[in-house]
Amino acid sequence: VALVGPSGGGKSTLANLLLRLAEPTSGRIICGGTDLADVEAREWRRRIAWVPQRPTIFNATLAENLRLYKPDASDQDVAVAVGTAALGELVASLPNGLETVVGEGGRRLSAGQTQRIALARALISEAALLILDEPTAHLDQETELELAAAINDAVAGRTALIISHREEPIARADRTLVLADGLLTEGVAA
Question: Where are the alpha helices (DSSP H) in 59-185?
Fold first, then answer.
């Protein structure tokens, strides 16, 4: 599902409600027939992989950062995610490859690299729900096109909410929802 709308229209707020980082002041949120108020927030979040607009990078190795959602991910899972998220060049440039400590906040990384790390984390996870908030932000057009296709392949079989101002990441969505003036409406189907 693609979620589009003007800046400040509430797209990230909606994501925060789905993530249970905020609670509704009225009404209910029901996912898959389950009222989220009936599920412990921590348990609910274990079912979700989130790619925020400004990902957090920890003072740990790149491999550890990639395994955030699935600490026991195999080396093969990590390698596939690195390839899918177009991180191969970064890994090759680091002195110890995946075992390089990337520094608190990813200070050694560009904004686009941190965004791709966050995407790779989500791809490694086994989460049934992926929330991708501007997943191709900070990327050049060529990398955006490459990642948009990879995202489409990677979310197959899972539910994904892709929030974007840019057309490429949402071009292949099954449904498009428009959030404007506090109202959520069905958009043009892809």
Answer: 62-66, 75-84, 88-93, 111-124, 141-154
Q: What is the pLDDT of residue 168?
A: 67
Name the token pair of 59: 């003072």
* Tens-place pLDDT, residues 41-69: 999 998 999 988 889 999 999 999 999 99
Handedness of CA 57, 61, 63, 68 (dihedral sign): negative
Query: Would you say 178 and 14 are in contact if contact means Cβ atoms under 8 Å apart?
Result: no
**19 and 50 Cβ atoms separated by less than 8 Å:** yes
All residues at 6 or more sequence positions from 16 whose CB lies less than 8 Å from its CB, including other chains: 22
Chain length of the chain: 190
φ/ψ bin of 22: left (φ > 0), alpha (ψ from -120 to 50), beta (otherwise): beta
pLDDT greater at residue 27 or residue 173? 27
Cα distance between residue 184 and residue 121, in whole Å: 29
Asked if residue 119 lies in contact with residue 69, where contact means CB atoms within 8 angstroms, the answer is no
Buried-state track 54-79, b at ≥16 Cβ within 10 A, e below 16 = ebebeeebbbebbbbbbeebeeebbe
